[in-house]
Amino acid sequence: MNGIRTIQVESARDLGPQFTDNPHRMVGQDGAFSFELRDGSSFWFFGDTLIGARVPNQSPWIVDGHLVDHRDMTGQGTYEKMHNNTGLILPKQSGENGLRDFRYLTEQSGQLNCLLPLEAGEDPDDIRMWCQHGTSLGDSIILSFIKIRMIPRKDDLLPVTFEILGSGLAIGLQDDWNFRRIRHDGDDLLWKANDPHFGVAFLRRIEDPFLYLYGSVSREGTQRVYLARVQPGHVGRLEEYEYLVSGQPEWSGDVTQTVALFNDMPSELSVSWNAHLNAYLAVHSLLLSGDITARTAPEPWGPWSAPVTLWHANVKHAYPLPYELTLIYAGKEHPQLSPDNGKTIYLTYIEFEEYFPHLIEVRLGD
Q: In this structure, what DSSP letter does residue 298 have?
């Protein structure tokens, strides 16, 4: 491959919020990371998931007349339950008609299952386990998470305030979907608050012995993206990871030496090989602007192009927001939905009031 590929948008259309029609009284969720499973279906991983009912023409974050703030929403107002994370299985399909025939992972009772539940000593009003990406390794499934500490709001700029404590990995089997956190020296946070939070995107390459993990962290006033690699058989061993320290590429076992690939995205993104472009494709929200953007690179480590806008989310609310900023985030691609080797791609983003993964179809030019 020679140089950086240019992205041109031929057409784009809005396919609306997804997973709204479900039998579980699920009324909102964010995150929406996905990866392909061995049988061609895909696993979708979500963050905070609301179960119960929403009050019409009112922000979902208003409970008893007040912003819910940092509190767990279980049993509050019209909500029966809040899970920190949930998942579903989507049969192999194109995204052209929306996402259909999905099956949420449930407990024996039929209720939605929290895949990475809180453990003893983790107060649900204080700690959240939010989803990142994951990957399928044979019979095993690796899920990435960030651990969050919720903080009471100090102003009306944002509806919630939190700090990221770090990120980690959990491992389970596709047959039972029971996961355990991977620990290093007894700690489930493999990468700490000041480290890149690796696992925001996983990437495999044919005939490449390494599994690549992208991580993000806020530095110098913006989110920046970094790259790690590990052999798949050692994914649970922190001492086996190497971090990109130059674009040559050069690697080091010292995470403090790693260099940024690009920036200006709100923590989440996707990275995939796009055969149509003959390049790697990274998709992310551009800060909180409403733009869902893409970059290309000839190799997983770059060099990465400047962002090109694929879609701009125009949002109107039928009621006044109880906070100042419009939150549009979590932009990412789901490459397994493409019917034509990446000429047509499918993106999701989250708008905090709608609070469902919102699906967009983008047809790329030649």
A: S
C-alpha to C-alpha distance for 351 and 301, rounded to whole angstroms: 30
pLDDT band with cut points at 50, 70 and 90 for residue 3: low
Supply φ then ψ for residue 232, to 5 degrees: -50, -35
Q: Looking at residue 2, what is its pLDDT?
A: 47
Tokens of 256: 């403090």
Which architecture does CATH list for 9-195+262-364?
Answer: 6 Propeller (2.120)
3-state secondary structure of 335: helix
The helix or strand, by DSSP H or E, that contains position 205, with its residue range, turns out to be: none
Q: How many residues does the chain have?
A: 366
Domain spans of the chain?
A: 9-195+262-364
- What does pLDDT average to over the chain? 95
Phi/psi of residue 148, nearest 5 degrees: -120, 140
E strands of 152-232, at which residues? Answer: 161-173, 179-181, 191-192, 197-204, 211-219, 222-230
Residue 221: CB partners within 8 Å, gap ≥ 6? none
For the purposes of burial, counting CB atoms within 10 Å of the CB of 184, is it exposed (0-12), middle (13-18) or buried (19 or more)? middle
Segment 259-285 shows an average pLDDT of 96
DSSP state, residue 307: P
Residues 272 and 334: their CA atoms lie apart, in Å, by 9
Rounded CA separation 10/14 (Å): 14
CB atoms within 10 A of CB 78: 14
Task: Report, as an integer, the average pLDDT of 22-48.
Answer: 97
The answer to whether residue 283 scores a pLDDT higher than 70 is yes
Neighbours of 1 (CB within 10 A): 11
Closest CA to 216 of 151, 282, 312, 118: 282
Give the Å distances, CA to CA, from 198 to 1, 77, 133, 169, 191.
27, 36, 9, 9, 7
Q: Which tokens hold the place of 363?
A: 């047809």
Which tokens in the block code for residue 114? 């929290």
Strand duo 358-364 + 344-351: pairing = antiparallel
Q: Which residue has the tokens 């279906």?
A: 41
DSSP state of 220: T
